[in-house]
Amino acid sequence: MSYNKYSKEMKEAIIARMLEGDETVTDIQRDTGVGINTLYRWRDQAKHQKGLSATTKYKNADKWSSQDKFMVVLETANLTEIEFSEYCREKGVYPEQVKEWKEACINANDNAGNSNKL
What we know:
- Pfam families: HTH_Tnp_1.
- This is Transposase.
- The protein is mainly α.
- It is 67% helix and 0% strand.
- Helix 1 (8-20) crosses helix 3.
């Protein structure tokens, strides 16, 4: 089995385009010729290393304030799955984002008790 080798500089430049730019992974794939699965793997590895979520590519919703995200979590707490999906479509967010925000809210005070023990 043969693997393509890409220079570190090329890989870093492509990752930067995926993380910071407005281009889709498909656009970058067409432009660079790097396989789509390779690009997704690079992007996901880079996000994991930087502590970013897999849904960070949905930039508009991720730029929302913490208060706005918390309100979405509250508003969706008692919705059925169908209502939840409809809500997400109307707000322009992905269900995975809301689930991540909910997790963040649930875990927000996990370390609060530890800071008082210093």
